[in-house]
């Protein structure tokens, strides 16, 4: 994801905390297994069903930390530990990688700083930990790291995530949708909503989730590509066109190239935009 100076903001709202963590564990377990690594998800005590947080930022933090742990661990395992109490969440990502000495540990959150042991030529710009720490601090939390050379590293995140109670979805709009719509049977299809307008994303989420869809959101083309690159492949994409950075058409093209290179079937794409075919926009992405 891109971070532009002075343009970061938070959009807190209800988050299915336990479900988000289990979904991330399910996402990264096969990535670890592909490298011959073990992956353990260890909730410590009961986790709240709902908390108040910026889900996108929280997801970015954990994806960066888990992806980094798997990338730089050659043997052993990666562990995600989580506990929640007194409105505070503590999340630990531990690995059995090469570890870091004191000098490396002191610089680990600096841009482009990467440990010298066991990188194995792993790709990346060295920004993942910098971004994760920046987002953690944006959310009012703190991130720290401990490490022992030859044994591994542990990254710890502490965030204020107040638990929410009651039927969170039970708003007038959601009750109306649930009453008027018929839900799905069988497996829950994955839908990715890509739009830079938060209100438009939320409207689609509120329409789709009560029907049984599993919905994730991205506020830009870059964020959508990052999510898919991390392993969350949707069955369908609802794409806005007029977005800052790369527009919807370019996002569709890059998404299809990315999945084609991986041998994965591209998802169905629907354009959700007021100006989809106006002002001479060139539709060369095969959208009818």
Q: What would you say the CATH architecture of the largest domain is?
A: 2-Layer Sandwich
Secondary-structure-derived class = alpha/beta
**Portion in helices:** 25-40%
Question: How many individual domains?
Answer: 2
Low-confidence sequence ranges: 1-6, 116-125, 170-178, 276-282
Beta fraction of the residues?
15-25%
Figure out the total of helices.
Answer: 8
In whole angstroms, the N-to-C terminal distance is 29 Å
Count of distinct strands: 11
Element string (H = helix, E = strand): EHEEHEEHHEEHEHEHEHE
Kindly report the average pLDDT value: 83
With strands numbered from the N-terminus, the spatial order across the biggest sheet is: 2-4-5-7-6
CATH class of the largest domain: Alpha Beta
CATH superfamily of the largest domain: Histidine kinase-like ATPase, C-terminal domain
CATH topology of the largest domain: Heat Shock Protein 90
Keywords:
2 domains, Heat Shock Protein 90, 11 strands, Rossmann fold, 288 residues
Describe what this molecule looks like in 3D:
The chain is of the alpha/beta class and 288 residues long. It folds into two domains: 13-160, Histidine kinase-like ATPase, C-terminal domain (Heat Shock Protein 90), CATH 3.30.565.10; 172-271, 3-Layer(aba) Sandwich (Rossmann fold), CATH 3.40.50. It contains eight helices and eleven strands. It has a five-stranded mixed sheet, covered by helices on one side. Strands 9-8-10-11 form a four-stranded parallel sheet. A two-stranded antiparallel sheet has the order 1-3. A hairpin with a 3-residue loop joins strand 6 and strand 7 (152-160). Helix 1 runs parallel beside helix 2 (55-71), helix 2 runs antiparallel to helix 4 and helix 7 packs parallel to helix 8.
């Amino acid at each position: 994801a891109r971070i532009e100076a002075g343009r970061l903001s938070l959009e807190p709202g209800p988050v299915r905390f336990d479900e988000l963590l289990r979904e991330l564990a399910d996402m990264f377990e096969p990535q670890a297994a592909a490298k011959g690594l073990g992956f353990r998800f260890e909730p410590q005590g009961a986790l709240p069903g709902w908390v108040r947080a910026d889900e996108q930022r929280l997801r970015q933090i954990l994806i960066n930390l888990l992806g980094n742990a798997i990338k730089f661990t050659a043997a052993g395992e990666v562990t995600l530990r989580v506990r929640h109490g007194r409105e505070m969440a503590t999340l630990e990502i531990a690995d059995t990688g090469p570890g870091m000495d004191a000098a490396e540990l002191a610089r680990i959150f600096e841009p482009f700083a990467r440990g010298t042991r066991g990188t194995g030529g792993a790709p990346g710009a060295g920004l993942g930990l910098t971004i994760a720490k920046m987002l953690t601090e944006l959310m009012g939390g703190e991130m720290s790291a401990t490490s022992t050379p030859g044994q591994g590293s542990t990254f710890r995140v502490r965030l204020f995530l107040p638990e929410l109670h009651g039927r969170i979805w039970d708003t007038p709009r959601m009750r109306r949708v649930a009453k008027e719509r018929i839900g799905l049977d069988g497996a829950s299809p994955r839908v990715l909503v890509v739009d830079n307008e938060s209100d438009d994303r939320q409207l689609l989420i509120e329409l789709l989730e009560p029907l049984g869809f599993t919905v994730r959101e991205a506020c830009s083309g870059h964020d959508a590509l990052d999510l898919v690159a991390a392993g969350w492949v949707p069955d369908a994409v609802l794409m806005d066109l007029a977005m800052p950075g790369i527009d919807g058409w370019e996002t569709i093209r890059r998404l299809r190239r990315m999945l084609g290179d991986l041998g994965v079937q591209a998802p169905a794409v629907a354009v959700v935009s007021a100006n989809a075919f106006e002002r001479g926009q060139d539709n060369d992405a095969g959208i009818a």
